[in-house]
Structures are given as structure tokens and as C-alpha cells.
TrEMBL record:
Pathway: Sphingolipid metabolism; Lipid metabolism; sphingolipid metabolism. SUPFAM superfamilies: Homeodomain-like. Residues 94-127 form the Homeobox domain. It comes from Diatraea saccharalis. CDD domains: homeodomain. The lineage of its organism: Eukaryota, Metazoa, Ecdysozoa, Arthropoda, Hexapoda. This is Uncharacterized protein. Residues 130-331 form the TLC domain.
């Protein structure tokens, strides 16, 4: 019963160009090139747990001590007193507005209830050192992966002429270095998706979750359909700006304000240049305009391109937040708040960075 469903899902008319079968691009010793193996899309999952373990070791023995040497505190807010009734209300509605009605219902003073909720929300926040270690880990990976990706693609013809992502498709062979680049990148995004549920809880939690899932689906679809060439370009482009995103946060938590401001300026240039410039006007323009000129279209290609456009939509949202921060930065004289997302805070709105919220209250 399962086989007909799988056969229907992996219909060649959906996933492959006209007059192409799965057998045509199946790996084998008799093939002229080394094709991608669809079973390898599962390899990054166990590798993701290796990344999670490596991150734990680095945060405990390298990033943590380094952060403390910079004077970053690992202190946590004072805990609220045990109160089963208020705890039950908090779990149901963490940001309750009707404090007066709740205080009367529980026969407590309104001030007592407000103070308890404030302390209870604060105790869920991670320490500054925890956030610093998380950003340093991501920055380390993005630097290493961008460097490795640039090394891998330097001698590849499609890095210099994107048309080669489509010329000769689907008979594109995959080299060992590209294989490792794909597996490592996929494993990291799997690790982020898994660890996101216990990492620092940020306001754009679901935006980032959608971003990670869309990226994983893009990697899987492009691998199965042998579209790995365009996939490597998207990976390289994204890692470049993410280095600055994490570096700015780490510098801010370490209280290196001048370094933070400099990195933030670099972030604006890199982010806008890659995510709002090169990505839509070179990558997506190529996949949407040039690709149909060079190869016959098929259903899976439209799925692939839709996911690329979904990433662009997220880029636009984050760019707007970053530009808001840039505007406040120019007025305040230094970078305040967080980049692209903020930790959950009692005084924050669901979608506005801390410093912007505070500025509006002045």
C-alpha cells in the first residue's frame, strides 16, 4: 500500500525534466558522471547531533571561559516565589493584561501580582553569557562554512557564470567537495532546527523556524533533483551576511560598543548587498528568467523557485527590522538592542526590537 503512494509522490513527470527518468540520473559505475544519491538526504540528521555535541563542548570549555574573561556575567534574574495559582495563570497566559481582576480573584494586591509576573517572566531569560556563547558558535560555523564553500566553488564554472547551473542539466556530476559542502550545511540547519526549541527564545522564533525548514527543503529538493549547483550559490550567499549578524550580537553582549558599531555598519552593507541585491536580482532572476530559456521546465522546479521566493520574503522582513535599528542607531549615536530578533521580554511587543520599543516610549 505504501509503495503506490511513494511511486505517486516521486512521479518522474513532477520531479524531472521531460524525457528524463530516475534511472537516467541514478548513480552507478556505468554513468558518465557521478550523480547525487537521493538516499544521502538523511545523512545530515545524525551529523546534526554531532554539531549539537560539538557546540556543547565549545560553549562549556571555550566560549564560556572566553566570555567570562571579557567580563560577561552569567548571572540570572531573581526567581519569583512559588505560587501554584499564579503559576497556573502564567502558563496559560504569560502576558495577562487584566491584573486588577486577577488580583481580586486570587485575593492579592495588584502590586503583588504585577511584581510576581515581572519576576516570573524574567527568570525564563537566559544569561548574557548564554546568549554570547550561542552567537559565537553560529559565527564560528558561518566563518568556517563560508570559507570552505568559497574554496570549494572557486574552480567551479557556475560560480563565475550562473548559466552553467542549467546548461547540460540534469546531467551534472557532483564532486566530493561539493558533497561535503552540502552535507555539512544541511546538518547545521538541522541542528539549528532541533536546538531552537531550547535555545534563546527570540521574538522571531517562528520566522526562523520557517526559514530553517525552507532551507532544509531547498537543500533536499535541489539534491534529489540534481540542482545542487544553484543550491551551493544560495548557501554561499547566505553564510556571508550571517557572519556579521552573529558577530554584531556577540560584540554587543561583550559590551564592545565601538566594535559593535563597526560590525553593524559592515552588516548593513553585506546584508543589503547580498540578500536584497544579489539574491533577488541575480539568483532569483536567473532561476525565474534565464532557467526557462536554457532548459525545459517541470513541476518540481516551480516548487524549488517558490521556496527561494519564500526566503526572499523573510529577507525583506528582516531587512526592514535592520534598517529600523540603523535609523535609531544614527539618532542615538550607537547600536542598541539586538539584530534581526530580540530575546523575549516583558516590555517588548511581539515584533519590535527592544531599543525601538524603548524609543517609542520616550
Amino acid at each position: 500500500m505504501l509503495k503506490p503512494l511513494l511511486d505517486g509522490f516521486w512521479n518522474e513527470h513532477v520531479w524531472l525534466p521531460p524525457n528524463t527518468t530516475w534511472e537516467d540520473i541514478a548513480p552507478g559505475p556505468d554513468k558518465a558522471v557521478k550523480y547525487t544519491d537521493h538516499t544521502h538526504i538523511w545523512y545530515p540528521i545524525p551529523l546534526a547531533f554531532v554539531f549539537i555535541a560539538l557546540r556543547y563542548v565549545l560553549e562549556k570549555h571555550v566560549y564560556g571561559p572566553f566570555g567570562k574573561s571579557l567580563g560577561i556575567k552569567d548571572t540570572r534574574p531573581k526567581k519569583a516565589q512559588d505560587n501554584p495559582k499564579l503559576e497556573a495563570v502564567y502558563k496559560a497566559t504569560p502576558r495577562i493584561k487584566q491584573m486588577t481582576a486577577l488580583a481580586k480573584q486570587l485575593d492579592m494586591s495588584e502590586r503583588h501580582v504585577e511584581r510576581w509576573f515581572r519576576l516570573r517572566r524574567s527568570q525564563d531569560k537566559p544569561s548574557t553569557l548564554t546568549k554570547f556563547c550561542e552567537n559565537l558558535w553560529k559565527m564560528t560555523f558561518y566563518i568556517c562554512n563560508f570559507t570552505f564553500g568559497f574554496y570549494v566553488l572557486w574552480d567551479k564554472e557556475w560560480l563565475w557564470n550562473i548559466d552553467h547551473c542549467y546548461i547540460g542539466y540534469p546531467h551534472h556530476g557532483v564532486t566530493n567537495d561539493v558533497w561535503w559542502y552540502y552535507m555539512i550545511s544541511s546538518a547545521f540547519y538541522w541542528s539549528l532546527t532541533i536546538s531552537q526549541f531550547w535555545d534563546v527564545r527570540r521574538k522571531d522564533f517562528w520566522q526562523m523556524f520557517v526559514h530553517h525548514i525552507a532551507t532544509i527543503l531547498l537543500l533536499c529538493f535541489s539534491w534529489v533533483c540534481n540542482l545542487h549547483r544553484i543550491g551551493t550559490l544560495v548557501l554561499l550567499l547566505h553564510d556571508c551576511a550571517d557572519i556579521f549578524v552573529e558577530a554584531v550580537k556577540a560584540a554587543k553582549y561583550a559590551n564592545y560598543q565601538k566594535l559593535c558599531d563597526t560590525l553593524f555598519f559592515g552588516l548593513i552593507i553585506t546584508w543589503v548587498g547580498t540578500r536584497i541585491g544579489i539574491y533577488p536580482f541575480y539568483i532569483i532572476w536567473s532561476t525565474s528568467i534565464r532557467a526557462p530559456m536554457l532548459l525545459p521546465m517541470f513541476a518540481a522546479y516551480y516548487i524549488f523557485n517558490t521556496l527561494l521566493c519564500l526566503l526572499l520574503a523573510l529577507h525583506v522582513v528582516w531587512t526592514w527590522l535592520i534598517l529600523q535599528i540603523a535609523y535609531i542607531t544614527i539618532k542615538a549615536g550607537q547600536m542598541e538592542g539586538d539584530i534581526r530578533s530580540s530575546s523575549s521580554d516583558a516590555s517588548d511587543s511581539p515584533h519590535t526590537p527592544n531599543h525601538i520599543q524603548n524609543h517609542k516610549k520616550k
